[in-house]
Amino acid sequence: MGMFEEIWRYKKDIFIIFFGSLLSFYFVALGGVRIFDFLSLFILIYSISILKRKIMINKKIFFYFLFFSFFILTSVIVSLINDVINIHLPRLLGTIVTIFYSLLFCAYYFNRIESLIIGIKYTIYFHTIFFYIQFVLFNVFKIYVDFIEPITGNSSRNIGGRFNLDSSIRASGLYSEPASYSLFILTLMSIYIYYKKSISFFDLLVLISVLFSMSASGLVYLGVFVLVFFFYYSNKSIFFKLKIFITTLFLISFVYKVQFIDFEYVVDKVMNYEDSGSYQYRVGNTNDILSKLSDFEVLFGIGYANMDIMENKGSTYSALFIEQGYFLGSLFLVSIFLLLRLYKMDLIIIGFVFVLFFGTHAFAQIQFWLWILSLLIVSKHFYYERKNISVVA
After folding, report:
1. What's the whole-model pTM score?
2. Is 328 left (phi over 0), alpha (psi -120 to 50) or beta?
3. Is residue 369 within 8 Å of 377, Cβ to Cβ?
4. What are the pLDDT digits (tens) for 315-344?
5. What is the pLDDT of residues 32-74, one digit of tens each?
6. SS3 at position 87
7. Sign of CA dihedral 224, 227, 233, 234
8. Nearest of 269, 277, 158 to residue 219 by alpha carbon
9. Do the beta carbons of residue 135 and residue 171 sit within 8 Å?
């Protein structure tokens, strides 16, 4: 099957995943749910409606989201106990939509892994193409294209500090900033490579785009990704891995020579991460915020959708421990671990998932559950494949 024929045949699946990945187009939003998320949901509902057979929601997934609903309800009650003045109702409604989307997504793709993977593959490729268009147009022709601003009215964060339109930018494609691009492209790649267990040349270009983004956090995620997926999970021979490794070094050396990347900036950001504003936003200021809270709030958080305390919550961990406290936050992390292990997911993949929790993944957004559930579906596929038994949703 040719590429265009494959795209046409699986167009609904590609639209579902691609629209569901457009996190940075945050206009007309309901809490954590954006307008393109709703388009993804509508296409998902339509795809389910035209199926010739009924779909069933997996019982384990259903009961997990039942637990998740009680978790959110408990955290809202904590907000009320803390005498909250402003509850962010759109976020609560958006979370309900996210749960509904997640249940339908899992039911639809539970036994359709090929469609899921193809949707993810082309979503990755489309994002990478937009990234390289922005990157090449500026670095070769000095033409700056912001894909976000014409639609949302908000400019992408490609310039600032030592980066300006006269010298260089940090490309981000269809995401608002390089860190978001790096995080979400590696999130999608974690699903795709987990399924393939091999790296193609185009996959290599995808990974190199993370380096081109000059995101310090992206560079850290990329290093962990390479260690986990490239060396451990590739089913190719050691000679193939060596060839890819040498090719990567050659490309990096070439990029360094032509100065497409400000390596000094990237190295400085990584080595002096504690002074980085992005580090403080994602992780560093969490303890400072918690130190201002009462003992009850430290244990159970300020509460879900609590707008009385507007602090930086730029990572999964910081959001959990500030909003849900150490007890409820840890309970959620343990529940995610148990859910992943329930579907026999390898511990090393779970480890990578928890590394990416240092990024801006939020469980109120469908992107979070699209990632987690897709990994579960892939892991389930391998488990039943090894057992050589059929799958029952």
Report:
1. 0.91
2. alpha
3. no
4. 899 889 999 999 999 999 999 999 999 998
5. 688 899 999 999 999 999 987 788 888 999 999 999 999 999 9
6. strand
7. positive
8. 269
9. yes
